[in-house]
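Bench log, entry 3. Co-assembly request; chain sequences pasted below exactly as received.
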Amino acid sequence: MTQRKETVANHDTRLQVVVALPAHTALSGPLTYLHTQPCPAGSLVRVPLGQRDVLGITWEEDSPAPLPPGAAGSEAPPALSARALKPVSMVLPDCPPLNPAWRALMGFAARYYQRSLGEMALAALPPQLRDLSPEQWQRRIRRLQKAQAAAPARGDSPLQAVSAALSPSPQQQQALDTLASPAAHDKPVLLFGATGSGKTEIYLQAAQRLLATDPAAQVLVMVPEINLTPMLLERFTARFGTTQVAAMHSGMTPAQRLTNWLAAHLGQARIVLGTRMAVLCSAPGLRLIVVDEEHDPSYKSQEGARYSARDLAIYRARVETQHGRPCQVVLGSATPSLESWHAAATGRYLRLDMPDRMGGGQLPHLRLVDMSQQPKGAVLAPALVAAMTERAQRGEQSLILLNRRGYAPVLSCHACGWKSHCPSCSAYRVFHKIDRTLRCHHCGFTERVPRACPDCGNIDIAPVGKGTEQLEEQVAALLSGEVRPDGQPLHVARMDADTTREKGSLEAQLARMHSGEVDVLVGTQMVAKGHDFRRITLVAAINADSALFAADYRAPERLFSLLMQAGGRAGRDADLSHQGELWVQTWNPTHPLFAALRTHDFARFAQNELADRETAGMPPFTYQALLRADARTQEAAQAFLAAARDAARTLPGVEHLTLYPPVPMQIQRIANVERAQMLLESHSRPALQHVLSQWHAELARCKALPAAKGLIRWAIDVDPLAI
Ligand code: ADP
Ligand code: ZN
Ligand code: ZN
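Structure output for the full assembly:
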């Protein structure tokens, strides 16, 4: 490779450049290119790759050597094997390099989640950066520089809050004092605060304190879902003004994402607020990271690099600190993940408690409805209907939770037993009455409802089971004839992924809720998350039992958290809160989960659950990874996994792991793709990591086996949330 060097005059400096190679192409480190002069690591460059010119990032010299060609998945493309060194096409001008802490974060994330460095690092950049011409790039930069020049000079005057901070309650003051102490900088802080205890105000004040004392400091605030960003953005911009706060989530246009990313990268945005992707963003002055609702599973990415934004936030704070800029990380929740709870219990995290709600609001009373005592076939217990009616007559609102959208989960023919199977998935298509369609919630396949049974011609095909759409209809029927204080009929509405799909519809529905126009809201769990509905005084979960006996060992944790969070919606207004009630319809009223829920005792629930997990050898007492395979046939998927398992058995250190046999996934087929998985487990995280890191080369070999013919893709999921 080196004998070409003389022929490329002037291009005599070698640069290591990371580019986005698909994970299955090569789990490699950087590629070598030539350039006319040295260029600091972290610079954005464009380089030729095969026939294309792609975006890349220069990396340090001593980056890990690439694995052998074709080490992961398929063969390396011809461009990469035995290639002559090519020159860098251009270095993006006027862009400060991505700093060492950011590069360390990318290196860690790639290693830990078993992806290529290039895939991890390039996916962390705004997509539009990849497509910009040099001219477009320069125009962008100039516009930002102009904006910066026009804005009051940062650095001369510390950040001024636009609106004043609220004066902290004693409980908040204590939390703020502790946050300022060295102990809260040595380790992650778990802010365990009831819903409505004023956690968000803590984030605001901690940010304000930091930004006022350090003119270069930046704060990252994360929320689990896009839906929650507008609300938090509003609170932050009300406090700090719009120019200092940059949003970062997948709901923005590519142009907005680039603008906001640049604002953060150039240090203009003092506060970056976004969803899990925000943890990967460049923020050279990062000094505080907040992970709100840290227990939420949405922080774990379910595709591509399957990273946990919460876990990366913790790593990131540590690595920023190691690079000389102390960075604090705060995880907030009323129902922490059992991982975080356990970490606090064992002293790895510092726990801060805020048990009291602002204004002394009480948590709601639990009303368990024993379904075995209700009239046969009742959807809602009569007492619950009466309670909702009473509330509506007083001008208060109720919320009914059901975790299944659509009208009915399946249509069925009673004559022949036909069911609305999806032809491409091992799942039923859901009946949506509103447009009379059968829709597959997995592959999206949608058809008009047939007039008669496709198998036997019977015209009497009927919905089985219940979704939110049907529940809305039934609740409206149950409440018809009742009137509000203003004499109007009661208004029942529904909020779920179907009703909020269109842009702006979520905001419109939230506004109707807040204005009091809606008396009873039927919705999926998305309603329970984070929204501050002050007039809701009753929350009802009508089908909670499904989670008590689910195969997923995390289901009770999710249920408890959902009910606590949903209950937290009830009675946020202290004036009304003595009336707040959480109704749960169950066939198992003596289940211990409800005993803890009755006393709002998360600690007790967590202790019970952790004891069970320890006995069963489940996380957080063990560490897991899944190898998933998608293939044309289930046999091919399992053959690949079985071979991979055999290969793993030969790796050094495997004696510290348990390798489980391949199994079909719970939804075995989606869009005609067969899915299977195998689980790896260990009591030691390093031991698991050690085996995983050696496994990739073996997996490439397994893929080529004749028995695995038909394999489409495979992926490793480290710390999977569902197994
Ligand atoms: P959490 O994030 O824990 O749910 P919030 O920060 O949203 O709690 O606070 C709940 C409510 O109490 C909000 O309406 C908020 O404006 C109000 N609040 C919080 N802190 C204070 C304070 N110190 N003084 C007055 N009101 C406060
Ligand atoms: Zn039939
Ligand atoms: Zn389908």
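The chain has five domains: 13-99, 135-358, 361-405+468-614, 410-464, 623-718. The chain is about 30% helix and 20% strand.
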